[in-house]
Every structure is written in C-alpha cells, then in structure tokens.
Amino acid sequence: MQPNTKEDILASVLRTYPIFLQTLPYNIGVTITDREKYLAFVPPENLNLQIPVGQPIREGSLVDRAMKEQRKIFMKVDKSARGLPYIGCANPIIDNGGEVVGAYAISLPVDKYEKTREMSTELHRQMRCIAATCENVAAQAEEIAAVIKTLLQIVQGSQTYAKNTGDLLFSLKEIVSQTNLLGLNASIEAARAGKFGQGFHVVAAEMRKLAGQGAESVKSGVTTVGMIQSNSTRITAEVHTVDQAVTVIANAMTNLSAVSQQVCVLANELDLVTKELNDL
What we know:
Keywords: Transducer. By secondary structure, this protein is of the alpha+beta class. The protein has 2 domains: 6-112, 2-Layer Sandwich (Beta-Lactamase); 115-279, Methyl-accepting chemotaxis protein (Helix Hairpins, Orthogonal Bundle). The protein has 5 helices and 5 strands, in the order H-E-E-H-E-H-E-E-H-H.
C-alpha cells in the first residue's frame, strides 16, 4: 500500500534510507528534509559538516533549490569549504498529486578522485622529465660515439705511423748491419796494409763503434714501436667495447623515452577521467 499523506511519504523515506546506506559500497552522506527543516542528516566520513535535525533549511541550499525548481540539482564543493571535496545531489520528494513535500540529498566525497588526479598529474610531469632526460642522454651518447669514432681514427693513424716507423727501423737495421760489416772488412784490410793502414784502421774502428751504437738504438726503437703497436691494439679493443656500451645505452634511452611518452599519454588520459569524475 502506497503512503498517501505527506507525513506517510516522509516517514517511509526515513525508514528506508538506513537500508539504502548499508547497500552502497561508497562513503556517502544522506540528507532528508520536509519543506521547512531537516529531518535526518548522516554526513560521509571525514566531512566537516554538521546539520542538526530540526534546523531550518537555508535559502539557496542544494535541497532548497531542488524543491523550488522541482528537479535534480548537482553541486561540486571544493575542500576549502568543508575540508573535503565532495559532490552533492539533491532530488525533490513529490507526492502522488505532484506536490513537493520534501527533498533528499546525497553527498559523495571525491577526495580520492582528486588525489588520483594529483598523482596522475605528477606522474605525467615525472614521465616528461624522464623522457627529456632520456633524450639528453641519447644526444650525449651520440656525441660520445662521435668522439669515439675520432679517437679510433687517431689510434688507427698511430698504428699506421708505428708500422711505418717499424719498417724504417728495419731498413736502418739493415744499414747498420752493412755498416758493421764494412767496418769489419776495413779493419781486415787495414791490418793487411800494416803501418800504411793504421789511419784507415782507426776509421774502420769508429765505423764499427757507430754501427754498434746504431744497432742498440734500432733495437730500442723496435721495442718502443712494438709497445706502441701493442698499446694501440689494446686501446682499439677498449674503445670498441666502450662504443658498443654507448650504443646499448643510447638504444635503451631511446626505448625508455618512447615508453615514457606512452606513460605520459596514459597519465594524461587518467587525468582527464578523474577530471570528468570531479566535474560530475
């Protein structure tokens, strides 16, 4: 049997709203009024809002507007007003004759939505920073790769110079060997000439002495060139290793930048969704 009087309708609403609250998984508040005063008020958790039962309805309030305009009224309230942002929705209670006998309203806190929006905004900012950093690292990696290429060219040039020097030292070694042989032959001929070859013997001895010194110098030069070639080979191998590592880093930064851009898009979409929820 449907309630007929205004009092019956409001009493029915007052009996059923606790069941209504228990069935919802949300943290919401409920307000019930007649045409003049508040009949029930259950605020949502953490909402700094207290309305005593029996208090007159404030002019221009959500329930007042719903009754006067005879339609559903939405209102978004930021956290500066009650310490917690929330959405209010009020509906007029109309009897069978079409007369407004009261109103009911629900209050839904949206602090979690706003927190989600703040987090998505911060995530978007952080991802943009990461993407920018990745781009900078990738650019620096390209510069390092260019330096490595130049260094390889220098090392390869040094190896070429070392090889040419080695070839020159080999030629000098042959010359020194021939000079030593000439000095030896000259000494033999000077000895055969007796006293007439004494002056020539001195020259031959100096030739052999210079040849010996030249041989030592050539030997030292060959050792030095060998060390240069060995070190150049090691440097080339190390530079190639660094070049490969830089390439891996550059590729990783490029991939990370692409992922960051995708996360930025998702964060932006999340921000739009939470904004739409807040704007309900």
